[in-house]
Automatic annotation (TrEMBL):
The keyword ATP-binding applies. Keywords: ATP-binding, Nucleotide-binding, Transport. InterPro entries: AAA+_ATPase (IPR003593), ABC_transporter-like_ATP-bd (IPR003439), ABC_transporter-like_CS (IPR017871), ABC_transporter_ATP-binding (IPR050763), P-loop_NTPase (IPR027417). Belongs to the ABC transporter superfamily. One of its GO terms (molecular function) is ATP hydrolysis activity. Gene3D superfamilies: P-loop containing nucleotide triphosphate hydrolases. This is ABC transporter ATP-binding protein. PROSITE patterns: ABC_TRANSPORTER_1 (PS00211), ABC_TRANSPORTER_2 (PS50893). Residues 4-228 form the ABC transporter domain. It comes from Weizmannia acidilactici. Signal peptide: none annotated.
C-alpha cells in the first residue's frame, strides 16, 4: 500500500519555476528520502502535498485522500517544516499542549518523553530559545500525537551532531512502531544513514529514484592529492576516475571503484597532502545526468 502518491504534480509561480511533473510513491512502513539542493523544489512539493498551496496541475494523496478535499487526513500525520515560527511569548509546554489539543487525545506523557530525549526545556519561553532549540520544539510538536506518517523538511538544520544522532534514533524508533517517514534533505549522508529509497530532485524535476543499497554499491569518493613533484598523468586513465582537475602540484577527482586499488596507486606518489571525502550533491547529480545521456 502507498501512503503517499504524487502524480504529475506541477506548481508554477507565474514565470518562476516551482515543480514540474513530479511523480513518486512512498510505501507504508518505509523511510523515504527526498534530496536535492536548496531551491530544487523539495519544500514546494511537500507544501503542495499537504494542501498548504494549490497545485497548477497533477494530484497528490496521503492515505488515498487529498488534503484539499479531506483535511481531516492531516490528523494522521506529523509535519516539521524547514523553518519554524511560533508565538514568541508562549512557554514551550503551553505551545505543545495547544498543538496537542487539535488531536483530541491526551499527549502529556508523550510530550515529556520527547522533551527528555531531545533535551528540551519545557518551561522556557519560545523567545528565549536558540534556533536549534526551536527546531527541537518543532520535532516534539510533529511527533507528540504519534502520527502514522511523519514528513520532515530539512529537520536537522540547527541541531548539533549529538542531537542529530538522537533525532535519527528517535525517527528509527517511530518507524519500528509502524510510522512511515518522508525525509527531505540536501545532505546525502543523512539520507544514506536513514532511508530505504531516495528520490533526487533538481530544478523542480525528479531526475532519479534509487534504492539506498544501490547508491552505496556505487559509492563515489572525492579524492584530493598534493604531491612534492609532478602529478602522474596516468592516474587520469584509471577505471572509475572522473572529473579530473589539475592545478600546479595538486589534483582532485571523483573515484568510484575499489579503494584498496586506488590507495596502492597513491602510495607510489611523493605525497605532501591527501584528503578523501564525499562528493557534493551537485557532483552526484552530474553523474546521473551523464548516465541518462
Amino acid at each position: 500500500m502507498n501512503v503517499i502518491e504524487i502524480k504529475n504534480l506541477t506548481k508554477q509561480y507565474g514565470r518562476s519555476r516551482g515543480i514540474i511533473d513530479v511523480n513518486l510513491n512512498v510505501e507504508q512502513g518505509e523511510i523515504f528520502g527526498f534530496i536535492g539542493p536548496n531551491g530544487a523544489g523539495k519544500s514546494t512539493t511537500i507544501r503542495t502535498l499537504l494542501g498548504l498551496i494549490h497545485p497548477t496541475s497533477g494530484q497528490a494523496t496521503i492515505f488515498g485522500k487529498s488534503c484539499f478535499e479531506h483535511p481531516e487526513v492531516r490528523k494522521e500525520l506529523g509535519y516539521l517544516p524547514s523553518e519554524v515560527f511560533y508565538y514568541d511569548s508562549m512557554r514551550v509546554i503551553d505551545l505543545l499542549k495547544y498543538s496537542a489539543s487539535f488531536y483530541k487525545k491526551d499527549c502529556t506523557k508523550r510530550i515529556h518523553e520527547l522533551a527528555e530525549i531531545m533535551d528540551l526545556n519545557l518551561k522556557k519561553k519560545i523567545n528565549d530559545l536558540s534556533f536549534g532549540n526551536k527546531k527541537k520544539v518543532g520535532i516534539v510538536q510533529g511527533l507528540l500525537h504519534e502520527p502514522k506518517l511523519i514528513i520532515l523538511d530539512e529537520p536537522t538544520s540547527g541541531l548539533d551532531p549529538l542531537m542529530q544522532q538522537k533525532f535519527f534514533e528517535l525517527i528509527r524508533e517511530e518507524n519500528k512502531k509502524g510510522a512511515t517517514v518522508f525525509f527531505s534533505s540536501h545532505i546525502l549522508t543523512e539520507v544514506q544513514k536513514l532511508c530505504d529509497r531516495v528520490a533526487f530532485i533538481k530544478e523542480g524535476r525528479i531526475i532519479k529514484l534509487e534504492k539506498i543499497s544501490t547508491l552505496q554499491e556505487n559509492n563515489y569518493k572525492r579524492i584530493s592529492i598534493e604531491v612534492k613533484s609532478k602529478i602522474p598523468q596516468e592516474i587520469q586513465h584509471v577505471d572509475g576516475v572522473s572529473d579530473f582537475k589539475v592545478k600546479g602540484n595538486a589534483v582532485n577527482f571523483i573515484y568510484r571503484g575499489n579503494m584498496n586499488a586506488m590507495i596502492k596507486i597513491i602510495a607510489e606518489m611523493d605525497l605532501a597532502n591527501i584528503s578523501i571525502g564525499e562528493p557534493d550533491l551537485e557532483e552526484i547529480f552530474m553523474h546521473y545526468y551523464e548516465k541518462e545521456n
